[in-house]
């Protein structure tokens, strides 16, 4: 038997054994790509074989979209130098082979392009340099991109959505002051570059976290963002699933006030860290594994039940995160659907069963490692 096929069958049987008690699916009631996850942390830096194993696992779990970092710093370390697509090629190939769409978060300016030379989180000094990387990415992975002609063995799955940076209202992710003006300029340049390269692409606003609605209101007031994005994005971290919906509603009000009331909202990060009793922290987001699984189920149920309501219009929800270490002092290291030991070991967590149950229920079928319905 072919090794890849054998691996897929083993993964399918393992997940079936883990989740055999799940209720049968009903008719699909969410759009394609609604169920997503964030693929980041140690698993992205793992050997290629370890990373490759995650795509069939994600597909069998109901994941239809993966949010991943496309690092400009890694791709173009030298000014004016060629772009190195080797790392992003691996991501696109793995996702495509298992019917998973990618949402790249394009972030991290190389040192030569930073406005603040000392900070990895610095925005670019010149928006045109970042925009040039975006256009190169579309030329590589967009419709008719060079990647697809070089890999005829893969089913073409062009990347059509691009998220411009991540949480710029947080200083550790946007190191220079006055984030609204700076990010607004970057967004406008990015939108124009992407639409010139692929008029049908989707430009996603950076994820707004904490008081998301205030951050987006500031971007409208000081950043001139109206007309330069297709989807708003929020990261509604809260200890109460009901507040996830509340945050989305507050963001929707801001969009309506600025003439963007019909634009979709994507929840590009959603999670409940299962770090209670494991990390010395007073952060109210902490909870237990059992409670995290319950909150996951409740949050997805609430978002789906109200998804098409004009006050929400939620198009996707990405769980944070796919795999994490379950160690250290960062509460978000205890938020993965899988525990990853940093080498090759993965152990499913309670949240995984809850995620698969929810996805199966609302996607209308049990998924195979190929991404197809069983």
Q: What's the CATH topology label?
A: TIM Barrel
Radius of gyration: 20 Å
**Silhouette:** globular
Structural class: alpha/beta
Order of helices and strands: HEHEHHEHHEHEEHEHEHEEEEH
Plain-language structure description:
With about 375 residues, the chain is of the alpha/beta class. Helices cover about 40% and strands about 15% of the residues. The chain has helices at about 5-20, 50-60, 70-75, 85-95, 125-140, 145-150, 180-195, 210-225, 240-255, 290-305, 350-365, and strands at about 35-40, 65-70, 100-105, 160-165, 200-205, 210, 230-235, 265-270, 315-320, 325, 340, 345-350. The strands form 2 sheets. A 9-stranded parallel sheet has the order 5-4-3-2-1-9-8-7-6. Strands 10-11-12 form a 3-stranded mixed sheet. The relative contact order is 0.16.
């Amino acid at each position: 038997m072919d090794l890849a096929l054998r691996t897929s069958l083993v993964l399918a049987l393992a997940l079936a054994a883990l989740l055999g008690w799940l209720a049968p699916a009903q008719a699909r009631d969410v759009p394609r790509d609604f169920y997503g996850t964030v693929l980041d942390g140690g698993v992205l830096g793992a050997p290629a074989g370890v990373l490759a194993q995650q795509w069939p696992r994600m597909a069998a779990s109901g994941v239809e979209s993966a949010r991943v970092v496309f690092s400009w710093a890694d791709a173009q370390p030298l000014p004016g130098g060629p772009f190195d697509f080797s790392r992003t090629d691996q991501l696109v190939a793995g996702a495509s082979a298992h019917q998973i769409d990618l949402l790249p978060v394009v972030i991290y300016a190389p040192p030569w392009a930073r406005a603040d030379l000392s900070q990895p989180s610095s925005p670019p000094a010149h928006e045109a340099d970042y925009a040039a990387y975006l256009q190169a990415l579309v030329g590589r992975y967009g419709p008719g991109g060079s990647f697809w002609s070089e890999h005829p063995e893969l089913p073409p799955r062009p990347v059509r959505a691009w998220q411009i940076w991540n949480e710029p209202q947080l200083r550790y992710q946007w190191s220079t002051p006055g984030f609204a003006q700076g990010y607004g300029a970057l967004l406008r340049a990015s939108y124009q570059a992407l639409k010139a390269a692929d008029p049908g692409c989707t430009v996603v606003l950076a994820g707004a976290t904490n008081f998301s609605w205030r951050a987006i209101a500031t971007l409208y007031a000081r950043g001139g963002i109206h007309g330069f994005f297709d989807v708003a994005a929020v990261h509604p971290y809260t200890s109460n699933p009901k507040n996830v919906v509340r945050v989305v509603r507050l963001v929707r009000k801001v969009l309506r006030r600025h003439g963007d009331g019909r634009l979709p909202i994507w929840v590009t990060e959603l999670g409940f860290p299962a770090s209670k009793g494991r990390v010395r922290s007073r952060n109210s987001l902490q909870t237990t594994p059992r409670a995290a699984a319950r909150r996951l189920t409740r949050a997805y149920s609430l978002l789906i039940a109200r998804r098409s309501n004009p006050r929400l219009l939620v198009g996707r929800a990405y769980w944070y995160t796919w795999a994490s270490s379950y160690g250290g002092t960062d509460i978000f290291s205890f938020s993965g659907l899988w525990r990853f030991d940093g080498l090759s070991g993965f152990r499913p967590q309670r949240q995984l069963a809850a995620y698969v149950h929810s996805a199966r229920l609302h996607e209308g079928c049990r998924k195979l490692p190929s991404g197809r319905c069983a």
